[in-house]
Design brief:
By secondary structure, the chain is mostly helical. 50% of the residues lie in helices and 0% in strands. The chain is built from 6 helices and no strands. Helix 1 runs antiparallel to helix 2 and helix 4 packs parallel to helix 6.
């Protein structure tokens, strides 16, 4: 029997990993990653799940994905001035520091 493609995308470019991460389903996210889901997958607009989770302030999901090898696409790829400004506010700095700590293995 053929296995389902764990990285299959819906019409909007979202994968099961993106849906589960955005909804905070840690167990499902871990299971998808264990099955080979790509933690660096991007939606059709080129936005990564890490960027979406940063915007949401979801540190639990960020922890899981960064530990699985997800990279932060940060603000350098932002096309609009408004998003660049959001990246400079305190909320973004706090989450960026959190991501860096997780990546460095600091509890």
């Amino acid at each position: 029997a053929a296995k389902a493609d764990v990285n299959a995308k819906a019409n909007d470019g979202r994968t099961a990993l993106i849906y589960a991460s955005a909804r905070g389903h840690a167990g499902v996210v871990k299971a998808l990653l264990a099955a080979g889901a790509d933690p660096n997958v991007k939606m059709r607009a080129g936005v990564s799940i890490v960027r979406v989770l940063r915007d949401m302030g979801s540190t639990e999901m960020l922890d899981i994905l960064v530990k699985a090898g997800a990279k932060d696409d940060g603000c350098q790829d932002a096309q609009d001035h408004e998003y660049q400004q959001q990246c400079l506010d305190g909320h973004e700095r706090r989450l960026l520091c959190h991501l860096l700590a997780v990546a460095a293995g600091i509890p």
